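Q: I'm a student working through a structural biology exercise. My instructor gave each of us a protein and asked us to get a predicted structure, then write a short paragraph describing it. Mine is DNA-binding response regulator. I'm not confident about reading structure output yet, so if you can add a plain explanation after the tokens, that would really help. Here is the sequence I was given:
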Amino acid sequence: MPRLLLIEDDLTIRTPLVRALRERGHAVAAASTAMTGLRDALDDRPDLVVLDLGLPDLDGRELLRMLRAVSAVPVIVATARDDEREIVRVLDAGADDYVVKPFTAAQLDARIRAVLRRGPGGPAEEDPTMVIGGLRIDPRSRQVSLDGEPVELTPREFDLLRHLASRVGEVVTKRELLTEVWQIPYGGADKTVDVHLSWLRRKLGESAQSPRYLHTVRGVGVRLVTPEAGG
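A: Happy to help. First, here is the predicted structure for DNA-binding response regulator. I'll explain a few features afterward.
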């Protein structure tokens, strides 16, 4: 049974949401402040955190940064802030997904299940290790190394890299990435993909201007190639 931590200060949202998620098969703990939520996340080690941004003691984005400094637990941000710039800032702080209020428990449950499927124990563990040049991707352990050195990726960054590696040499559109990696078949912002690609490039020691593995095809998408074939 997945263990969730809901960090939400609004009692009228928190109480029915905890009940609805429990009815859908999750073990749910709840916190009403950022600092209580941080303590619970570190002490109880939940499988996933659902995080409100408008908390009374600390902005949720700052709490997300604090969490990311000490934990790789998947985080879904639940926010009433629907401005694209704010969403990008939330993703930049390390969120794995976001939902915009108001949302139903069924919608949130679908997002939770999608994020958990991408974690250890999901279908990706059946895939063989992929080796592309000096890049080694092991879906079973969800570990990545580059030229023999480990590369620390967030769960979403790993899924993005794995999907591109499964299509090595091919141009993959942003729409496909949103559908297959983010599980967003309709709608979604291309900027989400751009932000994560930027993080991934940085961790692979390259940039869009000087690519090695990740090559942008302007107006179409991105392709992962071996450095020798990148030309």
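A: Here are two points you could use in your paragraph. The helical segments are 11-23, 34-44, 60-70, 84-92, 105-117, 155-166, 174-180, 190-203. Residues 121-126 have pLDDT under 50 and may be disordered. It's a good idea to check both against the output above yourself.
Q: Great, thank you!
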